[in-house]
Amino acid sequence: MTSPTKAEGSGSAVALDPELASTSEKVEPKKLEGRSPGQLMWQRFRRDRTGMFCAGVVIFYFVIAMCAPLLTALSGTNPYTLYGQDPTYAETPVLDDFGLPLGYFGGVSGEHWFGVEPQYGRDLFAMLVYGMRTSLFMALGVTVLLMVTGVIIGLIGGYFGGRTDYWIGRLTDFFLSFPQQLFFIAFMPVVTAFFVDPREETPTYFRALAILIVLWLLGWMGMARLVRSTVLSLREREFVEAAKVSGASPWRIVRKEILPNVVSPILVQFTYQLPSTILTIAFLSFAGVGFVEPTPDWGRLFAAGAKYAEQDPAFMFFPGVALVIFILCFNLLGDSVRDAFDPKSGR
């Protein structure tokens, strides 16, 4: 009689004990949420401190370029005024009798933050921020056009193959046969002279259009070959064959099945192409066939710096440092983006 009573008492104790009751409940498993390739890429990229820092620097440069009018308004200067020759500013001279900047390090002062240009006295800070504005947005437009053209041609050649791929390949080889640097110098005057009377001054907008055309004609081939090689390996995959069997149109297969799988090489190539385009535009202006006076441009600053190197070496300092930092950060950003897309990367 005693043991049943104890058993009932122990049973009631178990039922009334909340801690023991909670352990008896079933633990529901946590729901696993899948992440898209873009989310995985962003997660890997955020862990890369170098990539995040370089991305911040690149964004900072574009913000500076966009805010160039505001920055020059704050400094009270502009890139076109000849402060060394304009009688309006005769009370505050910036050049000596030999046309060299007054003061230290190229004439750095509270009015002219980066100094002034020898012989003319133009403000270097205003010339630099407006030159960045010209070079960065010009290079961005050219690079986007190159990417779009290369992707379209590469998708067509890689997916359809056969004669289409053959003739596209021969066209690509034809454009690759041109020596780019020499052709840039030789072709730019031809383009401008074809539409503008040589006795008239070429408008700045037309020079920008001519640069865009030349760089576009001779720059899309690398992107096209990269996309073509990627598409050739993708079009034989199972998911593409399944889409064909289901009756999907070629446009739908390219847009839904192939294009999302070539986004990563396109983005990586974009991060390498943009700084290369900036250097090419600067080279054209340095050679005298790109932007000319009085349009501010990074290449023109280097051309002027080479002319003033003996009298005023400081003139080259700020444009040179700005360009080196931007190109270095953008190249490091490209490496970080590539590593973020690569699941086998050890970074």
Task: Give the SSE map.
Layout: H1 2-16, H2 18-24, H3 37-46, H4 49-66, H5 68-75, H6 124-160, H7 162-176, H8 180-195, H9 204-217, H10 221-234, H11 238-245, H12 250-258, H13 263-286, H14 298-307, H15 317-341
Task: Give structural notes.
By secondary structure, this protein is mainly α. The chain is built from 15 helices and no strands. Helix 4 packs across helix 15. It is elongated, with a radius of gyration of 31 Å.
Please supply descriptive tags for the structure shown above.
347 residues; mainly alpha; 15 helices; 0% strand
What is the 3D form? elongated
Series of H and E elements: HHHHHHHHHHHHHHH
Low-confidence runs of at least 5 consecutive residues: 1-16, 20-24
Strand content: under 5%
Which radius of gyration do the C-alpha atoms yield?
31 Å
> How many distinct helices?
15
Mean pLDDT over the residues: 82
Q: Total number of β-strand segments?
A: 0
Main sheet record: none
What is the terminal separation in angstroms?
A: 72 Å
Structural class of the secondary elements? mainly alpha
